[in-house]
Structure formats: structure tokens, C-alpha cells
Amino acid sequence: MSFEGFPIVMGLELTLACNLRCMHCASSATGITRRDELSLGELLGICDQFPDLFVREVDLTGGEPLLRPEWQQVTEHLRRMNIPVRMVTNGFLLEENAQRLADSGIATVGVSLDGLEKTHDHIRQKPGLFRRIISGIEAALDKNVPVAVITAVNDMNIDQLPALETILQDLGIRHWQLQPLFSLGRARSDGLKLSCSTYLELGKYVHRQAPRCHAEGITLMPADGVGYFTDLDTRDRLWAGCSAGISSCGITSDGNVKGCLSLPEQFNEGSLRERDLWSIWFDEKSFSWNRKFSTGDLGENCRQCVHGPQCKGGCSVMSFASGGLLHNDPYCFHRLSSRNHPL
């Protein structure tokens, strides 16, 4: 066994089915489940493998995870093993599930808000959704369910971040994650864009507002796709490369294992219906694109960069979504500043 790391953070996709048709969905999720999705027994059996691999957090995703009737049983099963569970939801079913979420002991519910009312409802293709989500957040907070908000930043909503921040402050939100748009799935065809100038504006916003948000009791969290190695990076720790297959992992709703659930199906490493998670995780061939990285793997955007050996070409999903290559992320504060994009 040459690799000695463990999947500390595990993404668990409960279903690919979704009740929305969002313009920026990287999974192109619809109302249809994956073929032959895992049964409840299979899900619980997979969860039973997590302690041996030192999993310390499980993130339930979809599709829309609240469409999977057994989400509460999975959550409570993991909690009995003292593994904190978080969920990412589009918020459509949040209000009606607020009590169940409270009863489940879930650690955090991440709810998507992608701009002010008109913009959010347009991106999510659902009139009235913004107000429904606000009601759902209020109901969840009233039940003492910890709620975080996730915003997929793009050219359409970058100017709305200050107003959205005020709304979140009034709601009592304590955690806000800003995620740059991935150009995968429907985002490739539905007209949403993330320009370099918008990306830099995102970095400036986080750098400028993070201290003020902190003073207001809001933790402003840039996602892993946000650039590194300039003064705009607000993280406490320096970026040390993509964690997919190193300290994080994902399981699709039909039992396939990937380093990151946001990566396309071609990055599947094996099926949990054929091998156990330990065997797949420690297979010397698994996640070789990341575990066996060398500077020779760096793409054109990163090859000459002094930070390349540590950065490994940035976020793998951003890199692949932008040009079909790994270790070549064009969305990088250091790179853009070097190309005369003023910071």
C-alpha cells in the first residue's frame, strides 16, 4: 500500500433526480434518477465502511438530496457513528423538512441562493423560488438547524453580492460560501458565464468584505475554486493542490467512486458494487491523475509558474471545465495578475 492518506471528507450523492432545471447545473440533473441507484441497504453498508477509512465528514448531495426519502435514515446512521453530516440542497423542500432536519442532528444545511430574487429565479428557472427559499431558511433557523448559504458566482450576479450579503445578515446566516461557476453540464449551453474580470471581482469582494462579514458574525468562505498566491487569498492555510483522491472522495448514487463529485463520469475509479471502498481507495491505479502528479503534468496556463509544484494547476474541476485538461486552471489570481489584469 504505497498511498497512506485517507478520505477525510466524503461526498455522498443520494440521487441524481432533481425538482429544478437550473441553468448552471454541472450534473445536468433532471427529474430522472440514475439507472439502478443504490438501495437504502447498500447506502448504509457503504456508510459502515467509513470509520475504517477515518472519514470525518459526509456531505449529502444530489440532484436534490431531499427527494431521496431515506435521507434522514442515512443521516442518523452516520451520526450514530459520530460522523458529522452536511447537506447541499436547492432549498425547494427546505421548509417542509425543517423539523426532520432538526431531528436528524444534521451539522449544516447548505442552501443555494444565486443572487437577488429576479436573478435567482431566472438562473434556477423557477418563479417564486427565491421567496420560497427565504421562508425555508427562516423555518430551518427557527428549528435551530444550522444553515449556510452557497452562491454560484457568475457574470449575471457579481454586482448583487453586496445586497445579498445584507439579506443574509438580516436572516441571521452565519456561513456564506462563494463558489465560482463551473462550465460543466447545462452551464456550457445556457448562457451563464464567468469572465476573468468577474473572477477577479469575486476575489476583490472576498478580500474586502471578509473582515467586515466576520465583524458581523458571518464567515465568508471562498470555495476551493477561488485562486491562490496573491494578497486576494484570504485562507489561513496556503493552497497545497487539489484534495480529490488525496483527502477527499465522492460516491455517486449508483455506487461509483470519484475523487470529486463535480468531476465528470470519466473520472470514475470503480464501483462499490464490485469492490469495497478500502480496495478502491488504496488501489495503486486509483486517482493517479492527482496522486502521481509531477510538474510535467502542468498545462500551458501553469507550466512556467513558480507556484506550480505546490499548486498542481489549481482546482481540478475548474481546470477541466475550462479547457478539458487537468492541472491547467485559467482562473488563478496569480496568473491573471501576471497577465496585466489589475488586482
Annotate the secondary structure layout.
Layout: E1 9-13, H1 40-47, E2 57-61, H2 71-80, E3 85-89, H3 98-104, E4 108-112, H4 117-123, H5 129-142, E5 147-153, H6 161-171, E6 175-180, H7 196-215, E7 219-222, E8 248-251, E9 256-258, E10 270-271, H8 277-281, H9 288-291, H10 308-311, H11 316-323, H12 333-338
Parallel strand pairs: 1-2, 1-8, 2-3, 3-4, 4-5, 5-6, 6-7
Antiparallel strand pairs: 8-9, 9-10
Helix pairs in contact: 1-2, 3-5
Descriptive overview:
With 343 residues, the protein is of the alpha/beta class. Helix content is 30%, strand content 13%. It is built from twelve helices and ten strands. The protein has a ten-stranded mixed sheet with strand order 7-6-5-4-3-2-1-8-9-10, with helices on one face. A hairpin with a 4-residue loop joins β8 and β9. α1 runs parallel beside α2 and α3 packs across α5. The protein starts with 8 loop residues before the first strand and ends in a 5-residue tail after the last helix.
